[in-house]
Each structure stands twice: as C-alpha cells, then as structure tokens.
Amino acid sequence: FVALCPLEAAAAPQQEPLCIFGTGDFGRSLGQRLLQAGYKVVYGSRRPQSCGPVPPGTQVMSHMAAAQSASLVFLCIHRENYDFLETLVHQLSGKVLVDVSNNLKKNIYPEANAEYLQKLIPGGHVVKAFNTLSAWALQNGPADASRQVLSESQDFIAYLMYISVATKLGLSVLDRGSLNAARELEDFPLELFPVWRLPLRLTLGLTVSFYTYLFLRDVIYTYVTEGKDISFRIMVSLANKVFPIVSLILLSLCYLPGVIAAFLQLYKGTKYKRFPDWLDRWMLCRKQLGLIALGFACLHVLYTLIIPIRYYVRFKIAESTISKVKMNQTSTFDTSVAWHSDSYLAVGILGFGFYILLGITSLPSVSNALSWREFSFVQSKLGYLTLFLCTLHTYLYGGTRFLRPSTYKWCTPPGYMLCLLLPSVVLALKLLILLPCVDRSLTRIRRGWERNGAGDDSRKALLT
Amino acid sequence: FVALCPLEAAAAPQQEPLCIFGTGDFGRSLGQRLLQAGYKVVYGSRRPQSCGPVPPGTQVMSHMAAAQSASLVFLCIHRENYDFLETLVHQLSGKVLVDVSNNLKKNIYPEANAEYLQKLIPGGHVVKAFNTLSAWALQNGPADASRQVLSESQDFIAYLMYISVATKLGLSVLDRGSLNAARELEDFPLELFPVWRLPLRLTLGLTVSFYTYLFLRDVIYTYVTEGKDISFRIMVSLANKVFPIVSLILLSLCYLPGVIAAFLQLYKGTKYKRFPDWLDRWMLCRKQLGLIALGFACLHVLYTLIIPIRYYVRFKIAESTISKVKMNQTSTFDTSVAWHSDSYLAVGILGFGFYILLGITSLPSVSNALSWREFSFVQSKLGYLTLFLCTLHTYLYGGTRFLRPSTYKWCTPPGYMLCLLLPSVVLALKLLILLPCVDRSLTRIRRGWERNGAGDDSRKALLT
Amino acid sequence: FVALCPLEAAAAPQQEPLCIFGTGDFGRSLGQRLLQAGYKVVYGSRRPQSCGPVPPGTQVMSHMAAAQSASLVFLCIHRENYDFLETLVHQLSGKVLVDVSNNLKKNIYPEANAEYLQKLIPGGHVVKAFNTLSAWALQNGPADASRQVLSESQDFIAYLMYISVATKLGLSVLDRGSLNAARELEDFPLELFPVWRLPLRLTLGLTVSFYTYLFLRDVIYTYVTEGKDISFRIMVSLANKVFPIVSLILLSLCYLPGVIAAFLQLYKGTKYKRFPDWLDRWMLCRKQLGLIALGFACLHVLYTLIIPIRYYVRFKIAESTISKVKMNQTSTFDTSVAWHSDSYLAVGILGFGFYILLGITSLPSVSNALSWREFSFVQSKLGYLTLFLCTLHTYLYGGTRFLRPSTYKWCTPPGYMLCLLLPSVVLALKLLILLPCVDRSLTRIRRGWERNGAGDDSRKALLT
Question: What is the ipTM of this complex?
Fold first, then answer.
C-alpha cells in the first residue's frame, strides 16, 4: 500500500539518485548535505572529466546522463548559462526542477529566473527554493536548528517531493505560494533593510537639523557674543543634547499615528474606511522608529555617564572649588536643588528601563513567546508609560529655566523646548482618548459599529 | 494515483474555492492571504450586496450559496452571531469548519466557542485555529518568518485539509490536541503574563517593605535625632539601596527551591515522591524571578553610575575639599581603603557581567540553540557563581561596618545585612550538597535508586 | 480511501494505543503529553503491579502484553537495561521503536544506543528521537512554542508514524538523516560549547599574558623604582587596561581570516582550491571570537564608568585641587586637551554602540529575520566600521604619549601600543583589498573565474 502515496518516491533515499547541475560552491555544499542525509547524488557537468572537486561518494556525468538518472534535479547554475538547458528539454520533461539561482541585481531580466526556466522546459515541474540559503549556511546547517527556507511552486507533486528532500536536510519549509511570486523570492536576498529606509532618513534629517540649530545657538553664539572658542563642545556636549531630543521625537512619532488613526475613526464613525496611504506607511514603520529611538536613548545614557570623566567637567569642578576657597564663600546645601536633580535623574533612569524592556520584547523570539494581549499590553501601555516618563524627565531637566530671559539666546528657544512639543501633544491627545465617553465610542467603532447605521452585516464581522 | 491521498483535496488550489463567513478585518485579511497563496476565495455574507470592501478577486454570496460551493469554511464571526448557523446545518454537514473566534473575556460562556459550533453543526468537522493570530499579523505574515499557529481538532481528515491550507499561508502549525482543549486555546490570547504574577507580587512586597524600612532608618531617624530634612534621598539614595537588596533576595529565591528539592530527595531517599505543591509552583517561576532580579540589578548599576553627577554628591565632595584646605589637613592615601573600594567595585562588575550572561541565555532563541547540558551548565554553574559574586560584593560593601555600634540605628540592622541572610544560607546549603558523600547519594537517587530498595523496576527507568 | 495512506495508522488517535517501556520521569512525562494529545497510552513494566505512579488514564501491563497491543513503542529505559528486550524479539518485530535514551558520557559503548537496539531487534523499525528533550521540557511543552526535536531513521514508514505523533505533541521535527548518525545525536545533549573552546582558550591566554605584562610594567616597576606599593591597581586599573586590549585583539582576529582568505584567493587565482585547515577552523569560530570581544568591551565600559566613584580617583582629584589652592596656581583651560579628551570618549562610545549592534544581530532570532545581504552588510561593513572606530579610539587614547621617553618603562612599550599592531595591519590589508584594481580581480575570482583559464565549466557554476 505504500507505493500509492507520492511522498514515497523521493523520500526513500536508496532507490534513485538526486541530480545536481553545477559543481560550484552551492552545488558542492548541497551535494554534501544530501549525501549526509543518505541520498545518492549525481552531478551533471559540461566536462565531467575536469570539473573540479566534488564531495567523495558522488558521481559526475554529462548533463544528459545525469538528468536521465534522476527525477529531481537541482539547478545550481547562473541564469546566464540556462540556455544550454534547451538541449535537454526532452530529458528534463516530467522531472522536478529545483531552481536555486539568484541574480546580482534586481530587475535585470524581464521575468523571474524560475519563470524563465519554466518557459525553457515547459514539461518540467519547477520549484523555486533554497535561494535564500548560502552555501555557507548549507554546510553548517545541522547546528543551526532554526534555519528556514522559503519556497514556492505551482505544482503539487513536485512540491511534495521537494519538501521531503528539504525536510531530510533538516530545513523547515515555508511555502510562499505559487510560482508567480518567484520574483519576490529572488529579490529577497538582495533587499537591504527596506522598511528601515524611511525611519533612517527621518532620523538623519532630525539629527542634522538639531545639530545645526544647537551649534548656532551654542558655539557660534558664544563666539559672537563672548569671542570664546568652545567648538570642542560639539563632540560630547552638543551630541548629548541632540541624541535625547531626537530620541524623544522619534518615540512620540511611534505613538502619534495610533492617536491619529483613533481620531480618524471617531471622525468618520466607522472602522471600515481605509486610512490614507501615508498613515498606513507610517504605522508600518513604528517598530523601526522605536528601535532607532532606543538606540539614541542608549547613546544619551552613555554620553551622560561619561560626563564626570571629561577634562572639561573636571576642570570646571576644580575651578569652582578653588574659586570658592579663594572668595571664602560658604555655600549652603539647597534641599530643593537636591530634590530636583535627583528626581530628574531617577525619572530618566526609570524611563530608560522601560525603554529597554520595550526593546527586548520586540526581539522576534521574545515577541513570539507573548500572547497577543501581552504583546499589545507591553507595546501600548508600557510604551505610553515610557513616553510619559521620558517627557517628564525632559520637563524636569528644563525646570524653571524657561522663565529666565537668558535662556532665549537670539530669541530662539533651546532645543529641549522644541522637542517637548510633539510628545506633549501626543500625551494630551491620548488622555483625550482615554476619557470615558470617547473611549466608549471608540471601543464600539472598533467592534464593528458604524455611526450611520448601514453596517448590519459588518457589525457581525469579527474584529481582532 | 494522486487522488488516493487525502492531502490532495485541499492542496490543489485550482479545484475548489475556500469559503469565509464574515467580512470583518480578520475575514478580509485571511481572504487576501488565501488569494496570494493561489486559492479561490468566496465570502458568505447576510447581505451580499452591501457588505463593505472585500479583496478584489473574491466573490461575495449568501451564506447558503457560499457554504455549498466549498468544502472548507472559515468562520470569522463573533460567537454572539453563531445562531444563524443553525439554518445552515444541512449545507455545513460534512464540511471542514475552521473556528477562529475569540471572546473578550474569559469564562463568559459555559463551553468553548468551538464546542458550541460543533453542537450547532453536529455533522461538521470542526477545527479550532488561527485565533492566536491577529488580522494585522495575517496581513504582514510573509515577512515574519517564525509565526506559528496553534490549532486542534478531533477530526483527522479535517485537520489534514486545514494543515495544507495553513502551510500554503506560510504558517507552521503546532497541534494542541483534541477539541476538548479548545477553551485553553481560546483563553490563550486573553492571558496577561500568568506565570509572572506571583514573582511580580513578591517583588512588589519586598520593594515596599524595604523602602519603608530604609525610609524609617534613614530619613525619619535623621529627622528625629538631628532635625535635618534629608527626604530628597528617597529618589536616588534609598532606591539605590532597595534595588540591590531586592535583586539579591530574588536571585537567591531562584536557587533556594533547587536546594530544598535536593534535601527533600535526600531525606525521602527517592526521587519518585512528588514535591509538595508550593515547591512545584515555586520552581516553575524561577526564570521569572531571575529576570526580575536582573532588571533590579540593572537599575542598581544605573543608579550607581549616576552618583558622581548628582548635585548632592558634588556638593559633598566640594565641601570636603574646601574644609580640608581650610583646616590645612594633610590626608594620606590609605592603600587598604583603595584595595577595599576597588575590589568591591570589581567583584560587583564581574557579578553583573555573569548576571547579564544568564539573562541573554534565557532569551528563547538563545536557549533553543544550546544543548541541554550547556543550558544547565549556564543556568546552574554560572548561576551559582553569579550568586556568589553578588553576595561577596555585598559583604565587601559592608566591610567592617558591622563592628561599629553607630550602624545599628534604633537597634535595627542596616538593609544590606538583612538581605545577606538568604543568599548566605543558599550558598551554605549548596556547599553542603557539593560535599562528595552527599553528592554521591544525591546522584544515585537522581538516577533512580531508592533507599528502601522497593523500586527494582523504577531503578531501570530512564531519568533525564 | 483514507486507509491507503500510511499516515493514518498512527495519526487517528482512537484506534490503537501507543506503548511506553519504562515508568521513569521521562516515560511519565511522555505519557502525560500523549494522553493530552488524545492518544491511548499503555505502559510496559517488569512488575506492572508495583511500578510507581503513572498518569491517570493509562494502563500498566507486562512488557510483552504492552508490546503486542501497540505498533509504536517508546523505549524510555537506560541502555544498561536493554538486554531484556531480546526476550521480546518476536513481539517487537515490525513495530516502530522510538529510542529516546542518552548516555552519561561520550564513547562508553562501541555503537550508538539506537544501533544497539536495531541489532537486538533486527525486525524493528528503529527511530532515534526525543533524546534532546528533557522530561521537564516535555511537561511544559505546550507553552514553549519553539521547541524542536531532532530525529533520524533509516526507515520511512517508521518515520512517518513517528512524525505524526511528534506533531500531535506540538513538536516540530528536524530530520537529521539516517540512523548511522545516531551517535552524533546521542552525543548532542552531552556537548559543552565545542565551538567556544578554541576562542575561550585564546582569550584566557591573551588575558593572562597582558595581565602579567602590565603587572610587571606598572606595579613591579613602581615598586622597584619608587618603592611604592600600588598593588591595589590590579583590581580595577590594570583590568581596565587588559580588557580593552584583549577585546580589540579578538575583534581584529575576527576579521583577519577573511582578509587572509581574500589574499590566498588572489594569490592562487581561483576560489576552487581549499583553504588550509587552520584557516577553515579559524573562520568557523569568528562569531565566538566576536562575542567574547563584545563581552570584554562591555566590561571595559563598566570599569571606565565607575572611575569617578573609586576612592583612589576621588583622593587624587581632591589632592590636586588642594595643591593648586596651596601653590596659588592659576591653571588655564586648554581647548586642545578638551578636544582630545572629548573626541577620544565620543569615538569610543560610537564604536561601542556599533559593537552592541553587531552583538544584537548575531542573536539567532534576529539574524534569521535578516536577508543574506542584510546580514553580510551588518557583519562585514558595520564590523569593519566598528574595528576602525575602536582602533581610532585606542590611537586617540595614546595621543602624543608615544613621543615621551618616560612611556617606555624598562624599554618596553605600553600595552595599548602592542594591541594596536594587529588591528592596524587588518585595516591596512582591508584597504588594499578595497583598491579598485584588487577589488575587481577578487570579485571576478569569487564569481568563478580562474586565472589559469582551465575552469570553463566551473565558471558557469553558481557561487553564493
């Protein structure tokens, strides 16, 4: 009864060899792994006699002979060299063809490599797979338990055979749908942080603007008014102002789209109208914004902690002590200053602690271990708490300084005031949403209720 | 021969549409993903003409027509609206019914949603699944490689069809057993850190008690005896005493149950007697205790590092320098004080380093990459080393202070002495266990030996 | 049609019980999990009447009766007790036998336990599995979503049955090939950081050598020339010199093999010649070298940040202030010193930030979420940037000190100069490789080109 199940054909390793075209790095690594998994392996090569080293225990034949001996062929050759396959149309028809090729750049060919292969061999069962693996990862595979491969095929029998082989190799297969998506799969190894691009650009813009702004207000102002050169401050003092400012702005930009979305839903009285595109795109990069904000917060902490080691600071402290001695001053301890300084530092540390917690829970393995409610609790409740603490930290930093006219050099506000605007607005709007009456409407809308009453059916639809 | 394998029926996407009841967020996201995977999708709706947007390429029909056209139906509707399904008993019999619903709260219905569904449609093959996924996760699924779904069914054919669909969607399926456990699965997305509850309460209790204790000994004592207001110390100074105290106690509470368990086994002379319930529950939350302890240790480190930035500390240092100048004192450098101060700091840093290492190895993805022996080496050997270093750090902090009577304000010991009790006991007991004779008995018991010699068979049983 | 598929036999839980030999921890935990998954469970025991507690709902029989009632038997007994199985050869023939046993040490038996079992029961279908799981992990399994099991078998039918059971238990199966590799699987839980051994030994050697070197130059030199005892410096001051030195050397040892490999390829004109063994082994432990380097960098940061809290430092600062007052000196603020001190610190912090980033991306769950190009961008580009920043930090630390003769105590260079050698060489070589002409040749070679022109076929092979 066993022979009736198509899984059998490929899975019983003894019966039939698997064929690999191409004896490059990838071909050799793959052959080695297949051998280890108990398969017979046959290489197809243009010049079987002089093709370089292959794993011991495998055979090298001509392409034609190799193709005939197996019912599953791995194509480990560059697309540029696919043309010779046309001569094997007959031998490869009916065979499962696993296309593992990648290109060096995106969009240099009109169709995906796998689609091109299917065109060349119309009778073959093409599976696109393994292209997200490197030869390196293949060779070291068994130790790396969590390696997954993406793959796709239109062809169910081909797919079953391929899966049984991939499983034997210790790879867990993630199906990515039919062959039409092959291009997406082939572009996958060429992507370079696509979702990070927007947040990174924003960060760069903010950093440069605030650096310039503070440079003008600090270094240039001092030079113009007092003639003193304090340009050394750009290395640490200015950086330690820019980092927390950018971090706080990015953190509030994480939570602003959620608030905007809630008000849009309240305004439209339904959750079934799509959000505008810019809001959708914004919401999709919240995680990245938050992680960059965390990075800047970490830099702020490090820059703050080295303050007492700096030559400048040590000099100032010594100078002030010496001048006190000389003037014979007796300064008295001011409890309110101590309160202010300590609470400012303590709130900052607590805010940073929660910040780190948010960062840890966004590690893939940690967030996968959380239930949906836990994840949203951490990212929303703890997130707003973090935003609140960091904003409070900045307010405490400012203290009563905003009352002194000397703060407004050249009539411009200091950087920390500018950066307080956004988080204050976000927190105020969030408070508004938390008002019982607003909250009730919003919850009703999010469960499917519509203000204009049309949605009898959609009211019954499941929201998550 | 292919048609003989039941996998085929659902897996060949062209043949038959899949049906989704409900056009809410989840229904629409699911439809989109099914479309991307190459399936035909049909929606069932009460008012097919005016049901809101569905993904382009899908059809909307009446519930009855939709049910008839497919052999697998996803029910993306709230349980409150299941009643209309009774009218479709005939159409849904023999179909695979995937119940994805969640409730807003636990225990509001007598039976699980999936069991209720099975009651309504006795002839349907009910699978409980996807309820741990959000519409959001479904839409962004392909990028999130490690998303797993839990699911369960009593029905093997139904289950196979469901698995082939879930796999096509790029989800890896974790089977949670038969439908009887549906309630557990439905409660899953509603859980909020259940294992963290006990450790968090304990932490809160300890923190509040020690804060109060230190507040009385520090702030109130100074106010009463000297009339000075040093309440500003609660922000940083007191916190920086409470955090390490609680951290050390929690860390030793991590290792105490293991020691108790060993002594219980030695006392009873067998490992086949169950531990008392409190010990079992305690052992299950050791990881959480350790992580909270690590969090407090991190706060302690940050609070310590900002010491030189505090106004209070700077004032004190300046004051002492000035007074030295005025008194014309010549203090000499005391090498033993330098030794003491440096070794206290160095031991603390090393302890913290190992602490962090323990934290990193308890990340799910890291601990999965370790073998069982590696994991137990890190968590046990390195764990005890960490406990030892942190305890030593506290002893060094105390130094010879315990000899001075002025330490015992109002005849109470300082906080660090109280917190040294528990780790000292744990380390002493562990040392006892490591004695060769005790260790030998324990190893024998853990390999299945029993003192009263009854267990001939169980001696042969495998222990891990 | 269902009965035709071999999956069915084991997967329909109602039909037939599963059998477990052995009622120890592992046997009981496994039984409990199988019960939860809906299977009937039967225990085989030598003395069925007095075998200790088994999960309620299971039956205990004699080994013979239990073996006859099931077609899949889990053997949860120590290998020492396998001998009695010989009496059951008849009953166990044709059954699927899952061997879960582990040994206490490596290489105490000539063949793997699973192979021994196969010898005892030649007619059984042996599967080696579950031995990497502990009884503990089995009991807590359902919550730990990412638990994977490794397993292997020569026997396809046996394997399919086993897989369907393992899947029902919520475990994802990683196939490790045929039974010949059983020993590797049995050694797996006994391994203790095998890839870490070489890097750790190297680290130990470097640390001890530099500690000794600096101890001689610092403590002994001062004692000999000035007669002063500054031995307290070994706790923090010396450690804080050794840690960054070792960290920088380890980091450059991470990148040196890649550079050597590139020059080897350039020299040989082909990428098809194998690298020497020592280079291969070196390249395989680069990740471990990098992580240890990161650990030492973290220690360096902590040791640096506590500087202002140290008694020694506070004493020195107070002393210098007092002496300035007494001498009535007026020291002027030196902007160039401020520039130097600040830029040295800032570069160090930035280097450390990228260091941490490298560490985070080498977490398994993070690196799995990156595409191949992203991973190599982070580990290569950002890695060299980190190495550059850390080297620059060290150069800035040295400053113009290398010009002063007093730096070379006993004619030996200070530690930081020694450690600058290696990273400077690595960076210089890397710069050489980045020269357009060299880069072009290297890229051609890595795409399969060979200088001696022999490789017509291999030029077509796929590189990754």
Answer: 0.76
